[in-house]
UniProtKB/TrEMBL annotation:
Protein name per its UniProtKB record: Copper chaperone PCu(A)C
Lineage per the UniProt record: Bacteria, Pseudomonadati, Pseudomonadota, Alphaproteobacteria, Hyphomicrobiales
Source organism superkingdom: Bacteria
Length: 167
């Protein structure tokens, strides 16, 4: 029996695991993943979830970390969660919340960002948000990019992100 290696980030086959599979095993693995709804764009509840008003601040610097904020409307009765975000202008992304426990507020990494069922939520700098780490280029006011927001149930949502001087 051939084992399938998976990435802890989003459940996709990792490169080493994929390379280790033979031709027939690859087809079988791909078929299984497709059947399980683990391919990008799969959307059992996807049409009931919309991402809007996604934006990052403009910056003349390269290699910095910037917050990505957005509005998410979940018309599905059941909750979902953001597992990962991929943007072409950042090397990594991390999901954060702001911890307001003892002392000064501090960002804390979270495994996923909950999206309650039948609700609209705002990801903001002072609450849940996504930090885009190590930007690869200057981000010019008015430009737009497409980022992939990966949800636990709704799958991958290609999302337009506006770069703006104002938050």
């Amino acid at each position: 029996m051939t084992a399938i290696a998976t990435s802890s980030l989003d459940g996709a086959l990792d490169r080493a695991g994929w390379i280790a599979l033979s031709g027939k095993s690859r087809l079988l693995a791909l078929g299984l993943l497709t059947g399980l709804g683990l391919t990008p764009g799969f959307a059992a509840a996807g049409d009931e979830l919309q991402v809007t008003s996604a934006r990052v601040p403009a910056s003349d610097e390269i290699g910095i970390d910037l917050p990505l904020v957005m509005t998410i409307r979940n018309d599905a009765a059941e909750a979902d969660a953001i597992l990962r975000v991929r943007c072409p202008f950042a090397n990594f992304s991390v999901r954060h919340t702001v911890d307001r426990g003892e002392g000064a507020p501090a960002m804390r990494e979270v495994k996923s960002i909950p999206v309650p069922g039948s609700k609209t939520i705002e990801l903001t700098r002072d609450g849940y948000h996504v930090m885009l780490l190590q930007t690869r280029q200057k981000l010019v006011d008015g430009e737009k990019f497409t980022c992939a927001v990966v949800f636990q149930k709704a799958g991958t949502k290609e999302t337009e992100v506006q770069i703006s001087r104002t938050p």
